[in-house]
Amino acid sequence: MADEKKLVAENVSGNFFVDRTCINCDTCRQLAPAVFADQGQYSYVSHQPQNDTQEVEAMRALLSCPVGSIGNRAKSKPNVAGDFPLPITADVYYCGFNSAQSYGGNSFFITHPDGNWLIDSPKFLPHLVKQFTALGGIKYIFLTHRDDVADADKYAAEFGAQRLIHRAELSSQPQSEIVIDQDDDLQFAPDFRIIVTPGHTRGHMVLLYKNQVLFTGDHLSYDVDEDTLYAHEGHCWYDWQEQIKSMKRLSQFDFEWVLAGHGNRGHLPLKKMKRKLNELIERMPSLA
Q: Of 109, 97, 149, 106, nearest to 264 (Cα)?
């Protein structure tokens, strides 16, 4: 729970506030960009909500904050827990309730007639268990890499789900049921292609769904303000040159959505997405 005795100095006055336990994961800025801003080392409340929509977005950010750094002094608060998982497009959802174990990484959920998928893991909470159950449970848990596994083992046990992870990341979930050994892309099921993208970590993988939605983990994300795709050399724990090679390989595939573990989601027309990805590939060598 956020502590009013630890307020960051930049908060504007009003009901919402951020305290000094913030880890600057950017979850709140993704969910409520009109309310929260980046100080550089942490987030803060730059504007209090100006309407019901912004208040709802700020409350969603409060619930999803992995470390409970956001508070709300209002006596009457909108009940937004039932909003999660939050629909993104068609059968794809954002789970919310980001976990501190994955440094606030995003996780996503797909409903599918052949079995539902969880991509990386949120906190293990009774509310999400109930919601996932109502949506048909979980058949597969796709783990992009070691950093964002969070409570995947608990969800696997709860739903009898099979976890997919690359061999190089297996130490983070050693009991995973399906281990990917190859470094080539794999058509796992008709709508699901696994693409191995070493760089951020040795066994990092992304998941391409229906040639439309790319779940990118920490490999690739979208900058809303700059309207561009980006990758972080400063957070590349394995090999930046390998990440460049992986990005080039990724350019062979079609997708219109980028849903990242860290960073904003992006939705662009196919041709524009291709162009933005190629622009990123051209920039990457100069970032090293």
A: 106
Distance CA 137, CA 126 (A): 13
The C-alpha angle 148, 152, 153, rounded to 5 degrees, equals 135
Looking up tokens 């909003």 gives 83
What are the structural domains of the chain?
Answer: 4-81 (3.30.70.20), 84-287 (3.60.15.10)
Asked if residue 42 lies in contact with residue 22, where contact means CB atoms within 8 angstroms, the answer is: yes
Q: Count of CB atoms within 10 A of residue 9's CB?
A: 7
Outline where DSSP puts E strands in 106-250.
108-110, 117-119, 140-142, 162-166, 178-180, 186-189, 192-196, 205-209, 213-217, 221-223, 228-230
DSSP-assigned beta bridge partners for residue 155: none
Instruction: Compute the half-sphere exposure of residue 57: CA atoms within 13 Å on the CB side of its CA.
Output: 19
Using CA atoms, how far apart are residues 218 and 202, in angstroms rounded to an integer? Answer: 12
Q: Which two tokens stand for residue 197?
A: 């993208």
Q: List pLDDT tens digits, range 147-197.
A: 999 999 999 999 999 999 999 999 999 999 999 999 999 999 999 999 999
